[in-house]
Amino acid sequence: MMMRAQSCILVSLLVLLEVLCSQVDGSNPGMVARITQKGLNYAGVEGVKTLEKELLMITLPDFKGDFKIKALGRGEYNFKSLRIQRVELKNTKLNLVPGEGLKASVSNSFIHVDGDWKARKSFVKVSGSFDLQVKGISISVSLALSSDSSGRPTVTNKQCSSHIADVDLDISGKIGWLLNLFQNHIESKFRRILEDKICEIVKKSVASDLQPYLQTLPVIAKIDQIAGMDYSLTGPPQASSHSLDTLFKGEFFRQSHRSSVPFVPAAMNLPEDHDLMVYFGISDSVFNTASQVYWEAGTMNYTITDDMIPSNFHIRLVTSSFRALIPQLGKLYPNMQMELQISSPSPPVMVFSQGNVTLTPEMELQAFVILPSSLRVPLFLLSMTTTVWATMDVNASRLVSSVNPGSPLTMKLIHSDIGPINVPLIQAILNYYALSTLLPAVNENLEIGFPLPVPRNIHLYDIIVQPYQNFLLLGSNVQYIKN
Questions:
Q1: Tell me: the pLDDT tens digits for 121-167?
Q2: Which of 281, 268, 338, 279 is nearest to 304 (CA)?
Q3: In terms of Cα–Cα distance, which of 145, 162, 156 is closest to 208?
Q4: I need a labelling partner for 40 at 20 to 30 A (CA). Which of 297, 388, 443, 450 fits?
Q5: Angle at the Cα of 464 from the Cα atoms of 459 and 470, rounded to 5 degrees
Q6: How far apart are CA 449 and CA 404, in angstroms?
């Protein structure tokens, strides 16, 4: 009962399992999800709330036995229509077991059950009602966490014990006094059956509810039509005395085909903070595999034509506007349309350091003139470099980002097919265009972000985002929101 009722909450907080699809390996993880004792305590509180509600709706099996009186001989009794009327689960704890997994326990708990009884001796039948007070219930369950060959998490029930301190049975009805003669015997039998039944239900729930749930979780996060993200485990969850770490591959890949990436995640040394319920360590390799994927897909190549220039922009992409920049252009190609192609010879690399995230992309700008026949004639090729600052945030369980200029575009002429050109003036114009048009377009795409490995119904709040050397740290408290 306990494990079945808590499965969504417990699994969500304990393993943050929106995972998994490829082979487990021994490399450093791209992402680490850490659950602190504070997070486990919250899971226990929320789990108890759910469990108490669900216990009131379950159906208990009938309870049968026999009795023997010297003068009357042997008879039979049956307790049926058992209904749980009240539940109080107290002192719930979820504790970490270093190197193994988790230990869940409740103690000094109480259940009130009522129902009907009937007894028979030969042809004589009597019936009535009863109240059963089950007091001092204690349950202890040890769960071993691991992973299978496919990279999916596994959970097994390593140990279960239960104890009931007292059972108080009150029988009413015609000749209920007869059964009261055997009250101690009936109460003792009730206690033994309930103690055995509790662990039987726990073991069954772990095997038939919790473990299958882990195996059917979504295995791939689709980012968009181009990219997906692999959340496969790189090893079993790791329990310490203070936290539970789940290690994810955290790698972007192209939807059209998967290929190896040239990035190896560096080891992440997460700070020993335990003030929040969960922490995520996200390696810079996660962002750089994303950069690799989108660069290979050609999304970092931009074509700029005159109709894309804002109407309030004074320079148009026609040859007559470039007379001051390229003296020969207006003479050789009078009043013709132009086109600019911006490309990146390599994917930009995101660099994380204490408190900062920077990119220094290298780009090339190729200018063309478009002849009346639609033929494009190359004019000049410029190299461009700049530095931008990246800011990270969380929006609805997705990690989003935006970029701001850290330094102006710097241009260098690679070659010209049209004679001398005014590079500094072109540089000033492109800087203005980048700030007014290009950068907002980039940030609009970055607002899509990518999902964190957080299951449904889990809301993050009190979020902190802090860059460290080689990784990004994200911490938050969580709230379970039931549909």
A1: 776 787 888 888 999 999 898 988 887 776 677 888 888 898 999 88
A2: 338
A3: 156
A4: 450
A5: 115
A6: 16
Bridge partners of 464, per DSSP, are 475
Residue type, 409: L
Give per-10-residue mean pLDDT for the chain (483 aa).
39 34 55 90 80 76 75 77 88 86 89 87 78 90 80 82 88 62 74 81 79 70 85 83 87 85 83 89 91 89 86 82 84 91 91 90 93 94 92 84 87 92 87 81 80 76 92 90 72
Element (H, E) at 188: helix 183-205
Nearest Cα to Cα of residue 95 among 47, 143, 156:
143
CA distance 232 to 234: 6
How many CA atoms lie less than 13 Å away from 22 in the CB half-sphere?
14
- Neighbouring CB atoms inside 10 A of 214's CB total 20
Which helix H or strand E contains 316, and what residues bound it?
none
What tokens appear for 415 in the block? 């070659």
Q: How far apart are CA 141 and CA 308, in angstroms?
A: 64
Bin 270: left if φ > 0, else alpha if -120 < ψ < 50, else beta: beta
CA distance linking residue 16 with residue 4, whole number of Å:
17
Q: What are phi and psi of 292, to 5 degrees?
A: -60, -45
In this structure, the number of other CB atoms found within 10 A of the CB of residue 84 comes to 20
Amino acid in position 421: I
In 3D, which of 145, 144, 161, 142 has the Cα closest to residue 153?
145
Whose CA is closest to 101, among 141, 43, 155, 144?
144
Which is it for strands 471-480 and 278-283: parallel, antiparallel or unpaired? antiparallel
Residue 44 token pair: 């226990």
Angle formed at CA 292 by CA 295 and CA 387, multiple of 5 degrees? 75
Angle at 101 between CA 274 and CA 39, to 5 degrees: 30
Q: Which structure tokens are listed for 452?
A: 């964190």
Calculate the alpha carbon distances from 430 to 318, 333, 402 in Å: 15, 22, 20
Place of tokens 């408190």: 355
Q: Which residues of 328-363 are buried (b: 16+ CB within 10 A; e: fewer)?
A: ebbeebeebbbbbbbebeebbbbbbeeeebbbebeb
Q: pTM of the prediction?
A: 0.76
Q: Under a CB-based contact definition with an 8 Å cutoff, are residues 199 and 161 in contact? A: yes
